[in-house]
Amino acid sequence: MYCYLTIARYPTRFIFFALCSMAVFRVPLRKRRDIRFFRLMGSGRSGSFDLHPDWHQWAILHFSEKLELVPSKDAMDLFHQKLYGSFVSGWWKRFGCEKWTICLEVAEGHGSWDGFSPVQDGLVPLDPSEPMAVLTRATIRFSKLRDFWKRVGPVSQQMKDAPGLLFSAGIGEAPAYRQATFSLWKDGASMKAFAYKMQEHRDVVRDTRKFKWYSEEMFLRFRPRYAIGSIQGKNPLT
145 and 87: one domain? Predict the structure, then answer.
């Protein structure tokens, strides 16, 4: 199964329309038969779990059985029209959005997102020497919100400086309790060094299990296939 993540950045004068898009995009996306599951999300400022929103940056993430062909640089609008329909692609074009889209192949993982799981039989394991992307999302129990946010702050800050990290984004449906982090790594070895060797991260992972912070969670690793467009002037997957 394939996952497509598009991050769109709106000019300041059009932030109101960015907020509106989270409501109006639902209608055309629900009509697309090739989309198995999608979520419209805002972004945090820090690049990981974050309570402070980035009002310029918004995201669409969806899963599909279909692998779209790699588009040329001059065909980005047509590519987004194929992915999301003419209404969504036209909206971004009208409001002058900067867009970055990455195509990912699900390689391994566990858990679910509102009951949906993209993990299937026959997945090809990742080679630790190849680029890797990771999606971690969770619905945090209301009774655990204080403990969760107290602990994840230091981990988010250290992730920014992790060797081998190419890009990260904190994305979520609700700022306080429905959160996700997407990260792109130079190789699997870099990701594992951060995840398993950094004491603060290991402690948070341990405590999520011990104290049952999440009512639902999903962890996925992906094989990046390609990325087009730019985010703040560059394409992290070169």
Answer: no
Name residues whose C-beta falls within 8 Å of residue 145's C-beta, 6 or more positions apart in sequence: 176, 177
Q: Do 172 and 98 share a structural domain? A: no
- Among 219, 225, 226, which residue's Cα sits nearest to residue 108? 219
Task: Count Cα atoms within 13 angstroms, Cβ side, for 180.
Answer: 26
pLDDT at 161 > cutoff 80: no
Task: Give residue 26's domain range.
Answer: 2-105+224-229
**Total number of domains constituting the chain:** 2
Neighbour-count burial of 168, counting CB atoms closer than 10 A to its CB (0-12 exposed, 13-18 middle, 19+ buried): buried
Express each pLDDT in 176-206 by its tens digit. 778 888 999 999 889 888 877 666 667 777 7
Within a domain: 13: yes
> Concatenated DSSP letters for 98-166?
EEEEEEEEEEEEEE-BTTB----TTPPPPPTTS-EEEEEEEEE-GGGHHHHHHHHHHHHHHHTT-TTEE
Q: Is 169:232 a contact under the CB 8 Å cutoff?
A: no
